[in-house]
TrEMBL record:
Keyword entries, A-Z: Transcription, Transcription regulation
Organism: Fusobacterium nucleatum CTI-6
The protein's name in its UniProt record: HTH deoR-type domain-containing protein
Residue ranges of every copy of the HTH deoR-type domain listed in the record: 2-57
UniProt xrefs under Pfam families: HTH_11
Length: 84
């Protein structure tokens, strides 16, 4: 289940651009602390994800990063970010 959530978080951030931890927490119905642990897990895979503090801060993935969809299963390609 955690891996599924990590994928959904990654996909959601790629779709939205910059998001907040609170937004992700609400979206995926987990604590903000869990979101930060998930962000650390995503980062440890080599995906260039980072956080910035402040009023206009948030969680982003480097603009140069592109998810190679050939690495995804058919199920993952069809995953709707609207469901958790």
């Amino acid at each position: 289940m955690k891996n599924n959530r990590l994928f959904k978080i990654l996909y959601y951030i790629l779709e939205k651009g910059k998001v907040t931890a609170n937004e992700l927490s609400d979206k995926f119905e987990v604590s903000v602390r869990t979101i930060y642990r998930d962000i650390d897990s995503i980062s440890s895979t080599g995906i260039p994800i980072y956080t910035t503090q402040g009023k206009s801060g948030g969680i982003e993935i480097a603009k140069e990063f592109v998810l190679n969809k050939s690495l995804l299963t058919e199920n993952e390609k069809k995953t709707d970010t609207g469901s958790t």
